[in-house]
Amino acid sequence: MVEHLEWDTIPLPRKSLIPGEGFFQVDRDEPVVDEERFDGVEVVVIADPDADGLTSTALVEDVHDDIALVPTEPHRFERTVEQLVNNIEPGMTVYILDLSPDAFEPIESAITSMVDTTAELYWFDHHEWDESTANAVREVGVNLSIGASDEVCTADVTLDELDGDFDDRWVDLVAVVRDHDLWLREDPRSDDVADLAYWSNPAEFIETISEHGADFPADVLEFLDERRVEKQSLIDLAVSRAEFHEIEGFVIGITYGRCSQNEVAETLRQEGADAAAVIKPSGGISLRGTDTFQRCHVVAQRLGGGGHPKAAGCKPAIFDDMLDFAQHWVTQGATSKHLILQAFETVTEDQPK
Predict the structure, then answer these.
(1) Are residues 37 and 185 in the same domain?
(2) Kind of pairing, strands 243-247 and 43-47?
(3) 231 pLDDT exceeds 70?
């Protein structure tokens, strides 16, 4: 009989090949919206819980003081909106931050009801939007502001749109978040901000950046250093699995593993890649470009995703059940790798080097 292994006892090389522990906890029947968190508040924020989404949330909180945050990832966005509209009280103000819909039709009913119920509904984002989707969102009464995806992050949009008295510390923080989110790689603090958002809970992250901006105190930096020991090991494992393919004069680095995709992509760039694709055990794909390849968002669109010229993501529609995921893990993303190469071939045919 095979003994049940505690997550912390699984060797790191094996852990890097499968999703994180939470992936195996079935939660489809659990609500993504907890109505108790809305007691006594007048402002509700729905946000992607990455550094950009949470920094945008912190800006909203600085203006409104007491808010209720509903963190949700892009693949849960539709479900979150549907549940939220049934729980908010009339007259509340709602912000949707750093999230974009694949299409308007699946959320049209919920968004329309939310507009009718709320005092105001604001939506700030910086991803690539289909023009018809943006127009449809505005037509039902949403105050939608979309920044240029290759120039600003959602925190930039939020900073510009809010009627707040933000000092230079906030402006500096937003610039650091932009540096990470647009994959500019010019400010070393951007890794600190991104990692803290990933490793801490949203409330802790918001409290830290609200007090310190992007210049973290010693105890926070020590915490990040401790977590980065395992992080670096996962990066090294992913880099060791990388393959390089030349397509129309572009070198594409592809790897598989649970890792920090930004650092892996940077290492592959240093090894000669014009673009990098990191296939995640959870099924998603992160795409990172360079100055020589700035069409990652177009590649992602070919696979049902989107993003920005130098940073994009997608999740191919190849997972119907756990058997598909099992195949994905055993083959280290073979099907996804094939689809990525096809997408790059299609895009680079239109823009040879």
Answers:
(1) yes
(2) unpaired
(3) yes
